[in-house]
Amino acid sequence: MSASISIFDTTLRDGTQGEGVSLSADDKLKIAKKLDDLGVHYIEGGIPGSNSKDIEFFKRVQELGLRAKITAFGSTRRKNTEASQDRNLQCILESGAQAATLVGKSWDFHVHTALQTTLEENLAMIYDSILYLKQNGLEVIFDAEHFFDGYKNNPEYALSVITKAAEAGADWITMCDTNGGTLPHEVYDIVSTVVSNLPQANLSIHTHNDCELAVANSLSAIQAGARQIQGTINGYGERCGNANLCSIIPTLQLKMGYDCIQADSLKQLSNTARFISEIANVHMPVNQPYVGGAAFAHKGGIHVSAILRDSRTYEHISPELIGNKQRILVSELAGQSNILSKAKEMGLEFDPSNENSSKVIDKIKDLEHQGYQFEAADASLELLLREANGQISELFTFESFKMLVEKSAGQPVVSEAFVKVNIDGQSVYTAAEGNGPVNALDNALRKALVQSFPSLQEMHLSDYKVRVLDEKDATAAKVRVLIESKNVSNTWNTVGVSGNVIEASWEALVDSIRYALLGQINQNDKHSNIESQHGLVNH
Amino acid sequence: MSASISIFDTTLRDGTQGEGVSLSADDKLKIAKKLDDLGVHYIEGGIPGSNSKDIEFFKRVQELGLRAKITAFGSTRRKNTEASQDRNLQCILESGAQAATLVGKSWDFHVHTALQTTLEENLAMIYDSILYLKQNGLEVIFDAEHFFDGYKNNPEYALSVITKAAEAGADWITMCDTNGGTLPHEVYDIVSTVVSNLPQANLSIHTHNDCELAVANSLSAIQAGARQIQGTINGYGERCGNANLCSIIPTLQLKMGYDCIQADSLKQLSNTARFISEIANVHMPVNQPYVGGAAFAHKGGIHVSAILRDSRTYEHISPELIGNKQRILVSELAGQSNILSKAKEMGLEFDPSNENSSKVIDKIKDLEHQGYQFEAADASLELLLREANGQISELFTFESFKMLVEKSAGQPVVSEAFVKVNIDGQSVYTAAEGNGPVNALDNALRKALVQSFPSLQEMHLSDYKVRVLDEKDATAAKVRVLIESKNVSNTWNTVGVSGNVIEASWEALVDSIRYALLGQINQNDKHSNIESQHGLVNH
């Protein structure tokens, strides 16, 4: 039997204290549902005493009927008052939460500097507040703020704080590394001492990432005997963030033999992380451990050829266990094995001994030398590979474009584009405005095509990146444009490179639409009616 | 006396294996210079056998005369061949590097699966290759790939591999956690065993961040007796990245009592991290430990009032030690003091109690909210401050521009710009071509101005950067353009922001020229002849 670790999620409370993270009550409810599906044991929803958004959350979350315990956060009572008269404690009781996290001081320096009260009164504040909530039927998690700094400064007082919390009946005692400055061996030593002083207590750990050690510190505490981890999805939180549950849960479960959540739920981890980053509107780093898009992406040539023989050679776990997947990136560092495996992934037959195939490998290398980057432009790469395999029939050809940007003093800037394409032997000439030059080009190009290809109505550009390649050449430098496009079911990426940002954008735009229509060709091929519909125009 | 730790930087090699990181030879040279200023001891520049870009880097880096040891990376000789006949080893020798990192297998599974040779031949490959490079005068760092996985699978063989490397004369023996799956306590135990087996060897640690433990694993190895850390700036690297030197160096130096780099250089850490993220064009997470923009940012409420009483209450170190700074979010204090110190730096009199001054502070904050960034655009900020101080008299005013990009199938793209400005009451209308839209605008604007202001002939644009701000808004997103300009004696930076890349570029171009002419005003003011020459046109 392996030990169980309780997972306490504070994405909705401490997570929202991170810069750039701001969640509406609706957002919080969506995230709570997702966290519950993942199987966390506690969901700290916010501070009911602080704002109406959190009050609304606590009210509406009860209707969802979640399995996780909904937890409200607040401070111990104010100095020299009664717990029953404290407004914050009252708000917690009124919130309807099943559990309360109560934060109290355990660093004597803070008692003097921040609270400006005596060490004795601080102990009374903690004892009274916990007792009051327990008497009112709540489960109580006591958060000992600055516990490690406090312990280093005055171990006796820090221990007396959590002993007092245990006496008052706290269900969990959380040791917080509030400033994130403690090191893993210090956490291990201090938690070990606490375990031997309070052998009956349920201990919990709450760390911050200021030294990039929040995950390691959480694991250290577990190894020393703590049985609950407080953290957030994707490590959101004040300053450098909280302990990242997306890294902690799989490590505890897959490598250290602890039980946290169901193995089946673990497969939802990557999806959960991405979902919450979308709701929070925070860009998810591609290299995020375990759940990031590049966590199992292989770029180096040697790596790739070994991975193809046996994935254990360069993967520490099987990505499927956490719902992520292996990807092979194409880059100048890699040999042709990357391109071959990409072709295989795309279901293309591709024989490296064949002359056509080695030509396309040379072509890709040459394009990369010019500044193209296919690792983030799968769709452009697929178009090249299919072209080399003779599998592409173009549905339209380009004749010309003009793009005009005009501005007069005091007037808003105007962008217009004029596009001429040939569809099925017919020249189509259109004009459109846009809120910028690329938007105008995009609008004009779709306008020209959408009557013949109505499926283009369902796609849109979802991401646009520009990178100046040799910045020293200033405005004469090459730029690389990466475009991400989406329709209801798919996302694809294309690339364009030119000394002219408009031409580079145009290239990526055209590839995006060619790729969208490629799907249409394949789809229509199955029904054998594409040729009679449009006639195929060869490139 | 505290122990010294050698810092081995592999940003230019392993760092470029990260997704989205791609560096030109020029980029690599700029980064090498910056790393040398920081004081790292080894700079691994690339793989001289792999591509022409790396060969160029190793050639040109010698001209920089850096203090750090320039290091070339490569594999041990191929199986069943002579070291002296090995092409990769030859490339390392020809590169001119002072040191070589040689990677060899230490996991028996890899010897069989990836190399497909015998355990004995692998030992011979390692021994021969190290000996050959040592005989040719190079310092050799032996990278024992997959050392921890190898040790767990077959400790005897893993130890025999590094023992063999030591016998061949390797100067450093690096234990690599190549797949990033090892835990800190495992690293500590295994490194401790190695230390007792090879007490004379110089041991180095190389970790990856697949479990978000790369920093903790590096520190564990040091605590067990290793004396070198291999890592990258900002943790760039394959998959989830390498050990992040920006977190490791300050922790070792400020918290653990080791010597890594000079205390003065440590103050360059934040700047170095930001510079390299700009060159690599990889977005730096605001919550990055130590060096990120939010690492010492405090949101309103309890934290802020405590911080104002004593910054130790919520900061684990003083941000100045690593060149970062405290920020109080949602507070007037932070912005204002920044602007005041900037004004002082520029020699401007600037009184915050004065109404004009508080207006310009509000204006700057509003612009920053819109996406302007003055940290990298001193000249644009100076124009704003001088304007507020009534110190600017414009020498020209803008009337209108038009910018046309045209392309027909099979023809090169054409860019033209038409600019109308007013100089001294006279309208001047010019047209020019360029190799891109911004270049055309630049050409047309100078053409309009240069007759009246011949000094503009001496300036040119030396750097041009584009960043898409809200990538999710795709082609409707705002972009920020940063332009660097130079004349014989000065360099200055300007910024423009707009939903339209052309308009944003225009803004930055105009600021650049206004700034150049500001110099002229000042210069001419001294000779008191500017007004009679041109008459001042008020903006």
Automatic annotation (TrEMBL), chains A, B:
It holds the Pfam family HCS_D2. GO terms for biological process: isoleucine biosynthetic process; L-leucine biosynthetic process. Its EC number is 2.3.3.21. It is an enzyme of class 2 (transferase). Pathway: Amino-acid biosynthesis; L-isoleucine biosynthesis; 2-oxobutanoate from pyruvate: step 1/3. The keyword Amino-acid biosynthesis applies. Residues 5-267 form the Pyruvate carboxyltransferase domain. Belongs to the alpha-IPM synthase/homocitrate synthase family. This is Citramalate synthase. It comes from Paenibacillus crassostreae. The lineage of its organism: Bacteria, Bacillati, Bacillota, Bacilli, Bacillales.
